[in-house]
Amino acid sequence: MDVRLAVSPPARCRSVYRPWRLAFLAPLLAFALTACMQANRSPGLPPAGPFIPAPQSLSVKVAVVVPLNGQAADTGRALRDAAELALFDLNATDVELLPRDAGNSAVTASGAVQNAISAGANIVIGPLGAGPVRAAGLTARSAGLKLLGFSTDRSAGGGGVYLMGFTPEEQIEAIVTYAARNGLRRFGALLPVGSYGDLVDRSFHAAVAGSGGLVVGSVRYGRGGTVSANELRSLVAPGPDGRPPIDTLLVPEGGATLRQIGAILANAGFQPSAIRLLGTDQWTGSALGRDPMTIGGWFAGPEPGRFERFAARFQDTYGTRPPRIAAQAYDAMTLAVALARQPNGFFTADRTLGDPNGFMGVDGLFRFDRRGVPQHGLAILEVQAGGAVVIQRAPGGFGGPAF
Question: Are the CB atoms for 321 and 97 separated by under 8 Å?
Fold first, then answer.
């Protein structure tokens, strides 16, 4: 797909555009230039900063390389639309959007980036997934371009590749640390078989050790939630003294899997009053509060109010509710525009993106380390009968040096 878009109100939203919406969202442009100089921020989007005027003629080309066909096409189109929306909201008339179809493999993603480079791209947003990001990153690096990729795999970052996703490691560290600070010390885990479960297991052990707790045990489940009933019962059921061996149980997956696990836990003798369930941002959107097994559970993730404001804006413009990942495309494009408008353009991008103070995006505070790995300021949420409620606000600033 070889389409170039100069910035103007998307055709689907011209009739619903209101000037106040631009004022509501445009301050995000300043976040990459002013970082997080204010230590205390109010809820919502960041306060207004200096807006850098755009040149009158098109001078910057931003490639958005996402799957536009195949199984991931709906997600890819949402990513493209969110990036376009950012340009519109920022009134970035100096920026030309180059959408490219990343296809369904690392090879096609790399080829799409090469096509965008041939068209004069100055920076790349995308593709989606660790394998495509790695391959596309090599292609972008060979041309001296930075790439803002959509992946939660830390190994995909580095060498000019910056990752926009929420990594499992940071979520697990946040929720384990919070549990330990609230007096919980005996940790257990119910993890999926496979590479994701292996990653969570390593991160879980490291986080528990760092918090001074003890991993009592873990149980793996297979496709469809199949699990050894005896193993699970020995981990969660009360012992002879009336107490279970653990006081927390990490269940990292959400959605239908979380609902299946709730039924399995009930049959194994799990008592929510005795064991605190812990989770990740995958719990978001899992019809939380309907399953009594999950009531009282804690999980780490961004504060939901910020995304809901973005989602309302997106739906008002494009007619559909965006997936959660669309916010990352909006932030990536905002970063790209801010980098382009620096005095030295993209030549000092690494220094700007490595600012330890971080940036404020749709889903809150984030920053990158030297390998392009993100760290987010995460909230802690509790599952209650009406859904998830924030019980610890996300930080308004990073209190320490780069991680």
Answer: no
Comparing CA positions, the residue from 371, 343, 360, 349 lying closest to residue 396 is: 360
Rounded-to-integer distance, Cα 293 and Cα 286, Å: 13
Q: Which residues contact 154 (CB under 8 A, 6 or more apart)?
A: 163, 167, 169, 371, 373
Q: What is the CATH architecture assignment of 168-301+381-392? A: 3-Layer(aba) Sandwich (3.40)
- 333, 87 contact by CB (below 8 A): yes
Residue 335: which of 320, 355, 316, 319 has the closest Cα?
Answer: 355
Please give the average per-residue pLDDT across 322-340, as a whole number. Answer: 96
Architecture of the structural domain at 5-166+304-372: 3-Layer(aba) Sandwich (3.40)
Strand partners, 95: 60
Domain limits, the chain: 5-166+304-372, 168-301+381-392
Q: How confident is the model at residue 226 (pLDDT cuts 50, 70, 90)?
A: confident
Same fold, 5-166+304-372 and 168-301+381-392: yes
CA–CA dist 163, 150 (Å, integer): 6
Strands 95-101 and 5-6, by their bridges, are antiparallel
Using one digit for the tens of pLDDT, what is the confidence trace for 62-71? Answer: 999 999 999 9
Return d(Cα 175, Cα 248) in angstroms, integer. 11
Rounded CA separation 127/136 (Å): 7
Cβ 346 vs Cβ 63: under 8 Å: no
Which helix (H) or strand (E) element contains residue 339? helix 326-340
pLDDT in tens, 364-377: 999 999 999 999 99
Query: pTM for this one?
Result: 0.85
Task: Give the chain's count of helices (H) and strands (E).
Answer: 12, 16
